[in-house]
Design a protein that fits this description.
This protein is an alpha/beta fold. The protein is 44% helix and 25% strand. The protein has 11 helices and 12 strands. The strands form 3 sheets. Strands 3, 4, 5, 6, 7, 10, 11 and 12 form an 8-stranded mixed beta sheet that branches. A two-stranded antiparallel ribbon has the order 1-2. Strands 8-9 form a two-stranded parallel ribbon. It is globular.
Length: 293
């Protein structure tokens, strides 16, 4: 059983297409099909099923994917260790991120990292907090930016306390206030991020016994801001998401200071390339006075 067939299987799962997997690995579609068929023959069961809208894992394929990812991860780490012994830097680091980190931090961090570690390839995966955490646990990504709390089985390097704030339109009756009480928040129509993006807001509600009047739920930061801008409701957002706020939106402090705690999470025994990336993140934040624990 060769690693190359595992790589083919993983590429098909990642892309959802034999053609795209072939382009990724520089193989013909028939070569991709042959590798999958060979693997299925050796296992004795089907791994993939083909439908009108793409290719999907069978239930047996889902069970095998976890092990195949672990094998590919260990193989990549072995190559990185061997390269390090020979004084070289190689490898791939798969990084999970969410929008505010992706826009404000990562372009600068990636530029610095590629300058210092040109032999290591970075790949980005965007998702909500729950998805990113699951991807780390399942081996889809090597590390990910997350907010506390997270599962205890992951290692977490804290990076920043991001203040939670209330935003509302300058047409709103409360727009001249400096801060807003939790009682006032409870009485206003609220625009919430969708489930998976709302951990820290729900935590504020729990800690302060708030029963919010949720009017809309949307996943995109800019959509939330646009709805607030049009006075459709108020919202609670982390400070990092408000860097380019429109002029007709007001930002109010909460009655009690609250924060989301951003950090970078990995499984134990991270690869050498992943460690170099995390070191670069920490170094860049320190150099720009953004590290706030």
């Amino acid at each position: 059983m060769t690693i190359s067939r595992f790589e083919v299987f993983h590429a098909v799962v990642e892309t959802g297409s034999l053609t795209k997997a072939g382009e990724m690995l520089n193989l013909t579609q028939s070569g991709i099909s042959h590798a999958i068929n060979s693997l299925e023959t050796e296992f004795g069961f089907s791994l993939l099923t083909r439908g009108r809208s793409g290719i999907y894992l069978t239930s047996n394929g889902e069970r095998m994917l976890t092990y195949i990812r672990e094998i590919l991860t260990l193989n990549d780490r072995m190559k990185q260790e061997a390269a390090a012994i020979n004084g070289l830097e190689v490898g791939i680091v798969r990084i999970g991120t969410f929008t505010s980190v992706a826009t404000q931090w990562l372009p600068h961090i990636i530029k610095q990292f590629e300058h210092n570690h040109s032999g290591i390839v970075l790949k980005l995966y965007e998702g909500d907090y729950s998805t990113l955490e699951q991807w780390i646990l399942n081996g889809v990504i090597d590390c990910g930016f997350l907010t506390l709390p997270i599962t205890k089985s992951l290692e977490f390097l804290p990076l920043k306390k991001d203040k939670m704030l209330c935003i509302l339109s300058d047409q709103h009756p409360l727009h001249k206030l400096d801060s807003i009480s939790f009682k006032q928040i409870q009485e206003e129509p609220l625009i919430m991020p969708k489930e998976g993006w709302d951990h820290e807001i729900k935590q504020i509600f729990r800690e302060n016994n708030i029963k919010p009047n949720v009017k809309y739920e949307v996943s995109d930061d800019q959509a939330i801001i646009a709805m607030v801008q049009n006075n459709l409701g108020i919202s609670i957002r982390p400070e990092m998401t408000l860097s380019h706020i429109p002029k007709n939106i007001r930002i109010l402090n909460l009655e009690n200071e609250s924060f989301r705690f951003i950090g970078i999470a990995t499984k134990p025994n991270m690869s050498p390339a992943t460690k170099k990336f995390i070191d670069c993140v920490h170094s860049w934040l320190c150099d720009h006075n953004l590290l706030d624990l």
